[in-house]
Every structure is written in structure tokens, then in C-alpha cells.
Design brief:
About 25% of the residues lie in helices and about 20% in strands. The chain is α+β, with helices and mostly antiparallel strands and about 400 residues long. A hairpin with a 5-residue loop joins strand 5 and strand 6. Helix 1 crosses helix 5 and helix 2 packs across helix 10. The two termini are about 40 Å apart. GO terms for molecular function: 8-oxo-dGDP phosphatase activity.
Length: about 400
């Protein structure tokens, strides 16, 4: 992508600021370089000090300074071939840890702009790429501070007021067509929480990664248990086998098209409870009856990770995505078959544990779905300390602590 005129973009944004906002979708049933797209820039293989940040500045049309930062390596999927379970975790939970790579951790921290709201000036809500933050310069409702590397929402003292200001900005950004990620606009609101778990504002789902805020979802693994006669080598009697229902994402999806997924997965919208979201997604994605899911699905914890998006996620790369997935298990009778009920799933297949493990090794699963499956394997004794090298790190990394407020 060629450089662009930043001043013209901001003028267009002001023009696009809507006066009357359409009502955004909430659940209806009872009460989450020179190029703007770093994909166009190969970037260095590691850190390159002394360079300008990847700000989309056109020096011929603006005199605003470009803050100096480190140029960070492009996030890329781990190379094809057999992947270890730790490889799968590193691919999804790929924001550096202070304890293991202090230099890289601070290179990231010192590159991004921290997101704040004016009523909580000490509470970071997310991390934003410089190339995204600079677009807010001079816009209504926002204040950017290059010295402190911060972007603050200065409008609104209530959730409704803040949400309206954010909606006006994101809809204006969408109207300009500037960010590729906003082509996946969903008309769904995700909640952003404050230091005491209070709802600060809601944000359009497709724009959440631009702001680097914590988002919430629900993932469920549906499985069956069948008995078969033991082989001669296994010595008489019966053995119980577990099989998992695995869907393949539609080839037309904007994010991770054609990859394997968890049985049911989806985002949690503002106002939704995690289990209600799971019930809704089960009907929408797998045609599983509400009564069946409410009666038999079991809440089994959460999986958390801090992901830096690569090209498979769709839209701009290097955007930050800290996420919490509420995890559920559902044992199904052999005669219950999940079926697609929307255009997001191409189909379901009942796979043995060995088939699932092979697909994981081959990198066929969406990265966060691989994390959920590893959590399933740990809880069901499929993955054990005796057999798995790096077992403690794997279990620990499935439950990352965020520095941002959560609920």
C-alpha cells in the first residue's frame, strides 16, 4: 500500500462523523512504516533500533512529528510441518512475556500507545499501534499524547456517552474505507470494562482489535464416548473411545477461512452472560437445541491469551488481541449430530482423538481453538505430565494474566 495523506484522512473523518447513529445489534433473547497495512512491508527479522515507527505519515502534507519507536518483527504462523503443543501455544499467545524476553517485552510496550478514558487516567484499557493512534490526532472526543504514548477518550462520563463517542469515531473510520479490518463490520457490540469491573463503554466487534482491548468469547467442545471390543493385542473385553465433533470454517469467512474450529465458538456481546452466549451460538452454528445445551453443557473454566494478529486473521496485521474464552464441554449421545445452521460453518466431522492430534500437529486448527483443545486434553487426561515435555509451561500458558481490567 502506498503512503497516504494523513491530513486529508482526518478531514474526511470529521466529515463522516454521523449526527444520528443507527441502533447497533444487541441480543434479542433474554438477558464482547509507510504502509497502514504492515502486510505490505516485510520488516526486519528481529528488532531494528533507531528507525521511525510504522506511522502512515505523508511528510509532504503534514508537519506533525513521527515518534521514534522500535520496528517489530512481523508476526507469522509457525512453519508448516509437525507442530508441538508448545508451538501451538506460542503461535496464539505470542505477545512477549517480561519474564522470558525482557528486551522484546519492552520493545513492544514502548512501541504501542496505551488506551485510556478520562475518568480513569491510570488504567490502561488496551494497546494501539502507532499507525492506528495517529489517525485520531485532532479528532473530536480524543486526545493523543506522543510523549506519554497515550490515546485518551476525553468525552463522556457515563457508559452511554462514551459508547456514543466511540461509535461515532468507528463508524466514521468505516465510512472512509481506510482500515481493511472494518470491512468485516458485524453490528455487534463488545463490552470494555473498568478497574472495578464496571462497563465503561461498548465498541463495534470488528474495530476492537484496532484498540487492542480485551474481548470475551465462548468455546465448546462436543464429544461422544463409544465402546468397542478390544483387539487381540489389547486383550479381551471392551474399551471406551472418545470422539470430538470438529467443524470446518467456511471458505468465505473473513477470518481464518477453511480452518478447523471448536464445535461451537462465538463472541460475547454487551449484556450477554457467557452461558447464554453459548446457548445462542450452539443453535446458530450447530443446530443444537437450547434445552439440550442448557441441561448438559458444563462450564469448565476459561482460556486466556494475548495474540498479535497475523495475515490469517484478516485485515491489518500486528493488531493486538487479548482474549478470554469461557470454555464448555458437552457430551452428546451417538444419535445427536451437529449441523450447520448458518453460512459460517462448512460442515462437521466426528474425529477420533488421534485424528484431532494429527490435525493439531499439521496446523489445521484456528490458533485459539488449538488452545481450547489443549485445555480439553489436559482436563480429560489425554495430555499428561508423564508423556508431554514442557507440560507445566503448557498448562500455565493456557491461563494468561492480563494487565488490563477484566471481569
Amino acid at each position: 500500500m502506498e503512503g497516504f495523506n494523513l491530513s486529508k484522512l482526518r478531514d474526511n473523518l470529521r466529515d463522516y462523523m454521523p449526527k444520528d447513529l443507527p441502533k447497533m445489534h444487541l441480543p434479542s433473547w433474554p438477558a464482547g512504516h509507510s504502509s497502514m497495512n504492515p502486510d505490505d512491508d516485510d520488516g526486519p527479522p528481529a528488532l531494528a533500533s533507531g528507525t521511525q515507527s510504522n506511522l502512515p505519515l505523508d511528510t509532504a502534507t503534514t508537519t506533525e512529528p513521527a515518534p521514534a519507536t522500535m520496528m517489530l518483527a512481523e508476526p507469522k504462523p509457525i512453519q508448516p510441518g509437525p507442530k508441538s503443543n508448545l508451538d501451538l501455544i506460542n503461535e496464539c499467545d505470542n505477545f512477549p512475556y517480561y519474564q522470558t524476553d525482557t528486551k522484546l517485552f519492552f520493545a513492544h510496550i514502548n512501541t504501542y500507545y496505551a488506551l485510556y478514558v478520562k475518568d480513569h487516567p491510570e488504567t490502561e484499557l488496551g494497546y494501539i499501534l502507532p499507525s492506528v493512534a495517529t489517525v485520531f490526532r485532532g479528532l473530536p472526543d480524543w486526545k493523543i499524547n506522543d510523549e506519554e504514548r497515550s490515546l485518551t477518550l476525553i468525552t463522556g462520563s457515563t457508559e452511554a456517552e462514551r459508547s456514543r463517542a466511540v461509535a461515532m469515531t468507528t463508524q466514521a473510520l468505516r465510512a472512509t474505507g481506510h482500515f481493511v479490518i472494518l470491512k468485516g463490520w458485524r453490528d455487534e457490540l463488545y463490552p470494555i470494562y473498568g478497574p472495578k469491573g464496571e462497563l465503561l463503554f461498548s465498541i463495534e466487534r470488528a474495530s476492537s482489535a484496532l484498540f487492542g482491548v480485551v474481548t470475551y468469547g465462548c468455546h465448546m467442545t462436543a464429544y461422544t464416548k463409544t465402546k468397542r471390543a478390544k483387539s487381540e493385542a489389547e486383550v479381551g473385553g471392551e474399551v471406551e473411545e472418545m470422539q470430538l465433533w470438529i467443524p470446518r470454517r467456511a471458505a468465505t469467512k473473513q477470518t481464518y477461512p477453511g480452518m478447523l474450529d471448536n464445535t461451537v465458538a462465538g463472541g460475547i456481546a454487551t449484556g450477554e452472560k457467557p452461558f447464554d452466549s453459548m446457548v445462542r451460538e450452539s443453535a446458530e452454528e450447530a443446530s443444537l437445541p437450547e434445552e439440550l445445551v442448557r441441561t448438559h453443557a458444563k462450564a469448565v473454566g476459561t482460556v486466556t491469551y494475548f495474540h498479535i494478529r497475523d495475515h490469517r486473521a484478516g485485515g491489518e496485521t500486528r493488531l493486538l488481541q487479548p482474549e478470554c474464552q469461557y470454555v464448555y464441554d458437552l457430551e452428546l449421545a451417538e444419535d445427536v449430530v451437529p449441523k450447520p445452521s448458518d453460512d459460517e460453518v462448512a460442515g462437521f466431522e466426528l474425529k477420533s482423538l488421534e485424528e484431532v492430534k494429527e490435525a493439531l500437529r499439521n496446523g489445521e486448527f484456528k490458533p485459539n481453538c488449538a488452545m481450547v483443545l489443549l485445555d480439553f486434553f489436559v482436563r480429560h487426561g489425554v495430555l499428561t505430565a508423564e508423556e508431554e515435555e514442557g507440560y507445566v509451561e503448557i498448562v500455565t500458558r493456557l491461563h494468561r494474566r492480563f494487565e488490563f481490567p477484566t471481569v
